[in-house]
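STRUCTURE:
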């Protein structure tokens, strides 16, 4: 059974999980017609394959050490750092250590949809 999403105006915690990170799992925190927040938990040495979304997206490292892989190189994120990717930008994620990321997606009619090829 899926966990319920938060609702608009709810307070959502994205505090570091610390020792609990190893037992945590990825969740969708809230989804509206225009935005989705995902709390991604990535075990060390875990890769998320290359993909792209239709709109700009924000990748915010909450804890750990995450590399955002791009065709032009990579951006390494430490806790508290974020990067905003342009619409349609191909990217992947690589966890260098047990990590948690807050992913903010812009949606159109509730769908991130694939971006331009």
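SEQUENCE:
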């Amino acid at each position: 059974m899926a966990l319920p999403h938060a609702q608009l105006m709810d307070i959502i915690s994205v505090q570091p999980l610390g020792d609990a990170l190893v037992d945590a799992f990825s969740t969708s925190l809230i989804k509206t017609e225009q935005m989705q927040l995902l709390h991604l938990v990535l075990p060390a040495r875990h890769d998320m394959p290359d993909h792209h979304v239709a709109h700009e997206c924000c990748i915010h490292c909450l804890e750990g050490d995450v590399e955002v892989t791009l065709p032009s190189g990579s951006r390494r994120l430490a806790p508290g750092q974020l990067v905003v990717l342009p619409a349609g930008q191909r990217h992947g994620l690589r966890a260098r250590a047990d990590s948690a990321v807050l992913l903010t997606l812009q949606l159109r009619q509730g769908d991130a949809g694939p971006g331009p090829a």
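REMARK: The radius of gyration is 14 Å.
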